[in-house]
Write a structure and sequence with these properties.
The chain is mostly helical. It has one domain (8-79). The protein contains three helices and no strands. The protein has helices spanning 8-25, 32-60, 64-71. Helix 1 (8-25) runs antiparallel to helix 2 (32-60). It starts with 7 loop residues before the first helix and ends in a 30-residue tail after the last helix. Residues 78-101 are annotated as: Disordered.
């Protein structure tokens, strides 16, 4: 279930699907097993919709990249995390001159 929303048409179709399924989920005659399965799928699709929308906003407003990163939010088009190179150990400073008697 790793599918992403890739364009505006898929985004709009997902929004329509969410509205349709929200009505079905509220049906009092729906058995609990089916309701749970539908809720899991609903949550997955709604998360993908949010990620797509965040990605579109980040394209329009590049400053949002840093904010989303700070918040730990995923979004479509997020830059890949860069691996930091380990820093070389720093040379210890000689502070013996402070203790000369």
């Amino acid at each position: 279930m790793g599918k992403r929303i890739e364009n505006e048409e898929q985004y709009q179709n997902s929004l329509k699907w969410l509205i349709t399924k929200s009505i079905e989920i509220e049906d009092p005659l729906l058995d609990e097993e089916t309701r749970k399965k539908m809720l899991d799928t609903y949550d997955f699709v709604s998360q993908r919709v949010r990620e797509y929308r965040r990605g579109e906003l980040a394209k329009m407003y590049p400053g949002l990249h840093a904010i989303y990163k700070q918040l730990g939010w995923n979004y479509v088009g997020a830059p890949e995390p860069q691996e930091k190179e380990p820093e070389a150990p720093k040379k210890k400073k000689n502070l013996d001159f402070f203790f000369d008697d």
